[in-house]
C-alpha cells in the first residue's frame, strides 16, 4: 500500500496504482483530465499531455520534487508522494497550453459534428482552455475516409490519441489499421479501405475522444441531447450484450457500449449488437441510463425530474413574463 | 597540436582495411579485455575514465553501463546509435566511413563489458554508402576471429549486426530507436521504465553513441586513469567536433576538451577564422538543438572568463547566457547571416521530424515554423515574437522525448539574444523580402550603437 497526497487530500492506494487512478479514487475536481489514456486499453496514455501534474515530493524515501511535470496516467505512485494538480499554477498554465495545441488544427465544426455534446475535447477545452486562439494560419486538412462500411474517419478532427489503434491491436484478431506519416501530418489509416471487417471494430467509435470516428448508421440522424439513453441487454453469444440504446420515441437511433463516468467502456460490445439490432423488441430494457458526467445529457438529469422544482421554475417564468407585459403596458405612451 | 586519439591514424593509407588497422595497433584492446580482464574491470576502467556520452546529453557512459540490469536472466543488448541526423553534426559519419574498424573494435569490447552476445549498429537510413563499409569491416573482423563463437579461444561469443533505419531523426532517440529496431513505428516510449531495464525486445539494453563506443578501446589501451588526465575537470578526453558554417576550414576536428573557443575558431590548426575576412556574429556550439549564442557570449562567459570547449564551460550561465556542448556540431555564422532565417530553417526541420505522438511537439513545432516563416518573409507582427517565446515555453519539458526541447530551445534562445533582429524584420518588411537581405546590408544593432 502506498500513501499519496493529491492536492492536499490523502489517500491510501495499492502499489502500482497510477496517480490518475489514485485521483479517480478520490474523485471530484482534482481528477486530471485524460484525452488519450483509457484504462481498459493496455499501453495507452502518456501522449496527449493533458494530465500532466507536478510531483512536489517523489516519495517518503526520496522527497525531492520531480524536475518536470509528469503524465499522471502512466506515473505510478510511491509511498509518501505529494502531487499537485489544480493547486499548482504551472500545471494549470501548461494545461491551457495543451488545450491550445490540441485545438490548433482541430476544426471548429462542433455544430455539425456528431460527437458534440459528449466530446472529451469540448469538455477539456471548456474546463481548462481559453476562449480565443492565437493561431492565424491555415489548418491542416485531410480527406474523409471510410473505415469499413459502418465507420467514417474524419481525420481533421483527430487528436492522435492512438486509442483506436490499441483497440485494433488488443480487441481484434489481427491488426488492421495504424498510424501513417509523422508530425502533424500523421494520420490514422488503413492501407486498403473497407478492409476492416472484424467483429469488434465498432468499438473504435466508442473509444474515440473526439468526432474523428463516427458511426455511419447514426451520422447526422440526431443531436445527442435530443436522444434518451436506456440501459438494455440481450443474449449475445459474442459479447456481454450490455449496451446503451439511444432512443427517440420508439426508434433506436444508436447503440453504444456502456461508458463509466470517465467516458470509458469497461465491457466492449460486438458489431452485431451495435449495428444490427436497432429495434426496441430485440432488447430487454432495464431503465433510463444514468450519465453522471462527460455528456451534455448529465446536465438535465431527465431520468429523475424534480416536480417541485419544475413547478417553481414554471411559476417563476410565468411571473417574469407577466412582469414584462406589465412593464410594456406601463411604458407604452398613452 | 592537441592530443589525438580517435583520429590519430586517419592519414595512414588503407586504414579502412583490417590489415592496416591491425598493424597500427588496432584490436589490441579486444585481446587485452578478453584475455586479461573481466567484464566488470572493463566497466570499472570506463567509469574511471570519466567518459561522457558523445551523442549530446553528456551522460557518463560508465554510469549508464552500471544501470544495466544484470540480475535478470534475460539476454542483454548493446545498440550503437549511428542515427546521426542532427543538423550540423557529421562526426559519426566521418568516423564510420574512414575508420570503420574503430567502431567495430569498440563494439566488441563494450559488448564484452556489458555481457551482450548480440549487438546492433543502428545506422541512419541516409548513410547508404557506409552500410557496405561496415559490413565489410565486420566480415574482416570475423575472419580474423574477433567476432563469432568463442572469440580468441575464450568462452565469449558475439554477433554484430548493422541495421539501416528509414531516415527519421526521431529514431536517434534511444527508445524510438529500440522500437524501430523491433520493427515498429519509431515512436519514443514513455520513461520509466528505462532501456537499461526494459529495452530491446523487453530486455536490458544500453544505447551508446558511435564516438563513445569508438573511444572505449583507447580507454582500455591507456587505462582509465590515464584517459581521465586528458581534458579539463569533468570533461575528460578528446572530442570530435564537426565544424561548419562561415569558416575557412570546415571539417571534423579532434580536440582535447578544454580548448578555448577562440583558439578553436581562429587558429589555423582548426577552423582557421571566419571566411572572406568577415566578422563572426553568432555560433551554435553543439548541433542545431542547443541554444545559439552571440559572439560576445560565445568567446567569453558572462563572468568574463574565456569560454572553453568543455561540457561545463559551454553551459556556464545556464540558458540565459550559456549553451551546451551537445553532439559537437559547431556552426559559425558571419555578420551577413540572418538569425531569423536560420531559426526558421531549424524550426522547419523539427516540424518535419516530429513523430506526432504527443500534442505539444506535434502541433507546437508546426506553429513555430509558420510564425517564423511569417516574420522572415516580412508578414510578422511585434506580438508574434512574444508568441514564439510563449509557444516554446509550453513545449519545453512537456513532451515524451527531448525532441520537443530540442525544437523549443533554439527558438527561445534566438529571440533571447537576437530580439532586435526579429523586430527589424517586423519593422522593415520591404527590406527582408529578399532572402539575402543581410548580405546586402548587414544588420546593425541600434541598442549597441546607443550604448557606444
TrEMBL record, chain A:
- Key words of the record: 4Fe-4S, Iron, Iron-sulfur, Metal-binding
Question: What region holds the 4Fe-4S His(Cys)3-ligated-type domain?
Answer: 90-129
Highest taxon of source:
Bacteria
List the Gene3D superfamilies hit by this protein, alphabetically: 3.10.20.740, 3.30.70.20
Q: Which coenzymes or cofactors are required?
A: [2Fe-2S] cluster; [4Fe-4S] cluster
Write down the CDD domains for this protein, in alphabetical order: fer2 (cd00207)
A Pfam family it matches: NADH-G_4Fe-4S_3
Chain ranges of the 2Fe-2S ferredoxin-type domain: 2-89
* InterPro entries, per the entry: 2Fe-2S_ferredoxin-like_sf, 2Fe-2S_ferredoxin-type, NADH_UbQ_OxRdtase_ferredoxin, NADH_UbQ_OxRdtase_Gsu_4Fe4S-bd, Prok_molybdopt-oxidoreductase
Q: Which PROSITE patterns match?
A: 2FE2S_FER_2, 4FE4S_HC3
Indicate what this protein is called per its UniProt record.
(2Fe-2S)-binding protein
Organism of derivation = Chryseosolibacter indicus
Automatic annotation (TrEMBL), chain B:
Q: What are its cofactors?
A: FMN; [4Fe-4S] cluster
The EC class name is: translocase
Q: What Gene3D superfamilies does the annotation carry?
A: 3.10.20.600, 6.10.250.1450, NADH-ubiquinone oxidoreductase 51kDa subunit (3.40.50.11540), NADH-ubiquinone oxidoreductase 51kDa subunit, iron-sulphur binding domain (1.20.1440.230)
Catalytic reactions of this protein: a quinone + NADH + 5 H(+)(in) = a quinol + NAD(+) + 4 H(+)(out)
By its UniProt entry, which PROSITE patterns does this protein fall under? COMPLEX1_51K_2
**NADH-ubiquinone oxidoreductase 51kDa subunit iron-sulphur binding domain mapped to chain residues:** 340-385
Q: What is its EC number?
A: 7.1.1.-
Which keywords annotate this record?
4Fe-4S, Flavoprotein, FMN, Iron, Iron-sulfur, Metal-binding, NAD, Oxidoreductase, Quinone, Translocase
Asked if the Swiss-Prot or TrEMBL record annotates the protein with the keyword Oxidoreductase, the reply is yes
Record's family?
A: Belongs to the complex I 51 kDa subunit family.
- Functional note: NDH-1 shuttles electrons from NADH, via FMN and iron-sulfur (Fe-S) centers, to quinones in the respiratory chain.
The name this protein carries in UniProt is NADH-quinone oxidoreductase subunit F
High-level lineage: Bacteria, Pseudomonadati, Bacteroidota, Cytophagia, Cytophagales
Amino acid at each position: 500500500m502506498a500513501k499519496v497526497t493529491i492536492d492536499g487530500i490523502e489517500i491510501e492506494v495499492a502499489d502500482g496504482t497510477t496517480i490518475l487512478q489514485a485521483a479517480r479514487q478520490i474523485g471530484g475536481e482534482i481528477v486530471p483530465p485524460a484525452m488519450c489514456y483509457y484504462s481498459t486499453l493496455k499501453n495507452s496514455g502518456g501522449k496527449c499531455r493533458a494530465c500532466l501534474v507536478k510531483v512536489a515530493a517523489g516519495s517518503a524515501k526520496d522527497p525531492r520534487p520531480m524536475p518536470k511535470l509528469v503524465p499522471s496516467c502512466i506515473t505510478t505512485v510511491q509511498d509518501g508522494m505529494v502531487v499537485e494538480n489544480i493547486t499548482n499554477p504551472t500545471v494549470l498554465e501548461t494545461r491551457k497550453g495543451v488545450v491550445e495545441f490540441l485545438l490548433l488544427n482541430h476544426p471548429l465544426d462542433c455544430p455539425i459534428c456528431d460527437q458534440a455534446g459528449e466530446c472529451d475535447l469540448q469538455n477539456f477545452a471548456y474546463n481548462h482552455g481559453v476562449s480565443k486562439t492565437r493561431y492565424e494560419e491555415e489548418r491542416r486538412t485531410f480527406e474523409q475516409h471510410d473505415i469499413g462500411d459502418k465507420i467514417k474517419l474524419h481525420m481533421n478532427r483527430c487528436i492522435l490519441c492512438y486509442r483506436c489503434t490499441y483497440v485494433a491491436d488488443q480487441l481484434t484478431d489481427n491488426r488492421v489499421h495504424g498510424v501513417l506519416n509523422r508530425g502533424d501530418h500523421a494520420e490514422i489509416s488503413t492501407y486498403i479501405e473497407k478492409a476492416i471487417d472484424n467483429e469488434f471494430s465498432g468499438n473504435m467509435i466508442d473509444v474515440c475522444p473526439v468526432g474523428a470516428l463516427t458511426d455511419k448508421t447514426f451520422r447526422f440522424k440526431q443531436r445527442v441531447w435530443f436522444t434518451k439513453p436506456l440501459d438494455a441487454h440481450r443474449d449475445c453469444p459474442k459479447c456481454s450484450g450490455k449496451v446503451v440504446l439511444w432512443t427517440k420515441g420508439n426508434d433506436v437511433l444508436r447503440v453504444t457500449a456502456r461508458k463509466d463516468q470517465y467516458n470509458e467502456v469497461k465491457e466492449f460490445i460486438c458489431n452485431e449488437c451495435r449495428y444490427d439490432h436497432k429495434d426496441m423488441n430485440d432488447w430487454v430494457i432495464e431503465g433510463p441510463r444514468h450519465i453522471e458526467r462527460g455528456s451534455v445529457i448529465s446536465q438535465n438529469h431527465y431520468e429523475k425530474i424534480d416536480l417541485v422544482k419544475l413547478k417553481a421554475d414554471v411559476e417563476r417564468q410565468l411571473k417574469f413574463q407577466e412582469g414584462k407585459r406589465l412593464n410594456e403596458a406601463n411604458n407604452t405612451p398613452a | 597540436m592537441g592530443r589525438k586519439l580517435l583520429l590519430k591514424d586517419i592519414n595512414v593509407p588503407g586504414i579502412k582495411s583490417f590489415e592496416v588497422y591491425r598493424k597500427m595497433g588496432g584490436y589490441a584492446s579486444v585481446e587485452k579485455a578478453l584475455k586479461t580482464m573481466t567484464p566488470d574491470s572493463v566497466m570499472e576502467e570506463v567509469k574511471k575514465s570519466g567518459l561522457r556520452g558523445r551523442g549530446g546529453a553528456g551522460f557518463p557512459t560508465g554510469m549508464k553501463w552500471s544501470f544495466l540490469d544484470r540480475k535478470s536472466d534475460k539476454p542483454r543488448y548493446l545498440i550503437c546509435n549511428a542515427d546521426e541526423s542532427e543538423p550540423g553534426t557529421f562526426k559519426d559519419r566521418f568516423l564510420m566511413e574512414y575508420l570503420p574498424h574503430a567502431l567495430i573494435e569498440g563494439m566488441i569490447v563494450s559488448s564484452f563489458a556489458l555481457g551482450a552476445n548480440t549487438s546492433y549498429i543502428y545506422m541512419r537510413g541516409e548513410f547508404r554508402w557506409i552500410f557496405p563499409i561496415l559490413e565489410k569491416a565486420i566480415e574482416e573482423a570475423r575472419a580474423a576471429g574477433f567476432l563469432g563463437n568463442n572469440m580468441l579461444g575464450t568462452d565469449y561469443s558475439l554477433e554484430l549486426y548493422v541495421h539501416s533505419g528509414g531516415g527519421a531523426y526521431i529514431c536517434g532517440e534511444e527508445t524510438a530507436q529500440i522500437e524501430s529496431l523491433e520493427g515498429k513505428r519509431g515512436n519514443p516510449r514513455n520513461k520509466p521504465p528505462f532501456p537499461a531495464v526494459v529495452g530491446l525486445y523487453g530486455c536490458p539494453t544500453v544505447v551508446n553513441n558511435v564516438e563513445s563506443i569508438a573511444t572505449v578501446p583507447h580507454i582500455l589501451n591507456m587505462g582509465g586513469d590515464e584517459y581521465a588526465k586528458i581534458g579539463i575537470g569533468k570533461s575528460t578526453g578528446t572530442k570530435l567536433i564537426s565544424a561548419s558554417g562561415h569558416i575557412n576550414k570546415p571539417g571534423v576536428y579532434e580536440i582535447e576538451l578544454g580548448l578555448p573557443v577562440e583558439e578553436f575558431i581562429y587558429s589555423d590548426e582548426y577552423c582557421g577564422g571566419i571566411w572572406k575576412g568577415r566578422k563572426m556574429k553568432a555560433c551554435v556550439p553543439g548541433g542545431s538543438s542547443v541554444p545559439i549564442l552571440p559572439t560576445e557570449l560565445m568567446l567569453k562567459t558572462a563572468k568574463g572568463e574565456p569560454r572553453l570547449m568543455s561540457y561545463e564551460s559551454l553551459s556556464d550561465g545556464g540558458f540565459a547566457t550559456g549553451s551546451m556542448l551537445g553532439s559537437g556540431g559547431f556552426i559559425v555564422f558571419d555578420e551577413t547571416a540572418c538569425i531569423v532565417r536560420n531559426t526558421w530553417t531549424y524550426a522547419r526541420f523539427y516540424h518535419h521530424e516530429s513523430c506526432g505522438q504527443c500534442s505539444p511537439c506535434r502541433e507546437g513545432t508546426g506553429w513555430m515554423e509558420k510564425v517564423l516563416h511569417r516574420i522572415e518573409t516580412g508578414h510578422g507582427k511585434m506580438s508574434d515574437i512574444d508568441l514564439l517565446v510563449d509557444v516554446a515555453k509550453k513545449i519545453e519539458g512537456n513532451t515524451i522525448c527531448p525532441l520537443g526541447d530540442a525544437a523549443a530551445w533554439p527558438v527561445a534562445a534566438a529571440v533571447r539574444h537576437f530580439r532586435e533582429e526579429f523586430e527589424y524584420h517586423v519593422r522593415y518588411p520591404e527590406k527582408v523580402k529578399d532572402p539575402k537581405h543581410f548580405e546586402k546590408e548587414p544588420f546593425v544593432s541600434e541598442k549597441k550603437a546607443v550604448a557606444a
